[in-house]
């Protein structure tokens, strides 16, 4: 099910994004959805794995985001992996066009949540990590985990 995150109702998170990319900047964008899509999302039936955002004709679209079909939907149910339009200011889209034309930058969705009754997606301007960067991140996480474990043991004993 969906998880509460402060005042946001987080529906889906892209956990691979932090592992595969350096996130440089984040933007909050609205989503254009059909009725059965938002109903399915509110039930927590969304997956951001392998999804990405792309700009075409001055508009941004979210590709490969999987929203399961609504179980109570009829024959007018939505297609699960269709491209969904993201709502951003023209100035932000133009800024992202300029930044993504640089080598190695892409736009990845980080999380989807409900804010004030509207579906929002947090997208990040990301630069791909090399394999040695990924190993360095894992080493740092393991060291942090070890320190926390040692601190807990010390507090107990």
Structural key phrases:
single chain, 157 residues, alpha+beta, eight-stranded antiparallel β-sheet, two-stranded antiparallel sheet, 4 helices, RNA-binding, SsrA-bd_prot, SmpB, SsrA-binding protein, cytoplasm
Strand content: 35-45%
SSE run: EEHEHEEEEEHEEH
How much is the average pLDDT? 82
Unreliable residue runs = none
Determine the fraction of residues in helical runs and give it as a percent range: 25-40%
User: What's the shape?
Assistant: globular
User: What would you report as the Rg, rounded to the nearest angstrom?
Assistant: 18 Å
Sheet of most strands: 8 strands, antiparallel
Structural class per helix/strand content? alpha+beta
In the sheet with the most strands, the strands line up as 1-2-9-10-3-8-6-5
Instruction: Output the number of helix runs.
Output: 4
Distance between the termini: 37 Å
Q: What is the tally of beta strands?
A: 10
Keywords: Cytoplasm, RNA-binding
Family: Belongs to the SmpB family.
Region (Disordered): 137-157
Pfam families: SmpB
Topology:
Elements: E1 3-5, E2 8-13, H1 15-20, E3 21-31, H2 35-42, E4 46-47, E5 52-56, E6 59-63, E7 66-67, E8 84-87, H3 90-100, E9 105-115, E10 118-128, H4 131-156
Antiparallel strand pairs: 1-2, 2-9, 3-8, 3-10, 4-7, 5-6, 6-8, 9-10
């Amino acid at each position: 099910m969906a998880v509460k995150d402060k005042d946001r109702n987080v529906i889906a998170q892209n956990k691979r994004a932090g592992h595969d990319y350096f996130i440089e900047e984040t933007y909050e964008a609205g989503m254009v959805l059909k009725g059965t899509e938002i109903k399915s999302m509110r039930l927590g039936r969304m997956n951001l794995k392998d999804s990405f955002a792309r700009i075409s004709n001055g508009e941004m679209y979210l590709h490969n985001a999987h929203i399961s079909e609504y179980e109570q939907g009829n024959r007018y149910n939505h297609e699960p992996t269709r491209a969904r339009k993201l709502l951003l200011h023209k100035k932000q889209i133009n800024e992202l066009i300029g930044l993504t034309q640089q080598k190695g930058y892409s736009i990845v969705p980080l999380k989807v949540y409900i804010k004030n009754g509207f579906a929002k997606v947090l997208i990040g301007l990301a630069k791909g990590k090399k394999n040695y960067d990924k190993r360095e991140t894992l080493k740092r996480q393991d060291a942090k985990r070890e320190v926390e474990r040692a601190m807990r043991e010390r507090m107990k004993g």
